[in-house]
Amino acid sequence: MRDHVYALALAGTGESILFTMTLLSISKNLWFLAKDEDNV
Predict the structure, then answer these.
(1) pLDDT, position 1
(2) For the segment 11-40, what is each residue's pLDDT rounded down to a tens digit?
(3) Membrane-spanning regions, if any (predicted)?
(4) Which residues of 15-29 are buried (b: 16+ CB within 10 A; e: fewer)?
């Protein structure tokens, strides 16, 4: 039972890390796009 709870917690943590990484990469891409527009 404890292993199951641990696995669920681990999966939840992995998902939030993935979510955070995705958000970071999206904001980084938007920032680069904005920078490129300034150069034009």
Answers:
(1) 73
(2) 999 999 999 999 999 999 999 888 887 766
(3) 6-26
(4) eeeeeeeeeeeeeee
Q: What is the pLDDT of residue 18?
A: 94
pTM of the predicted structure, to 2 decimals: 0.58
Q: Count CA atoms within 13 Å of residue 17 on its CB side.
A: 6
Looking up tokens 């998902």 gives 15
Q: What is the dihedral of CA 18, 21, 27, 32, to 10 degrees?
A: -130
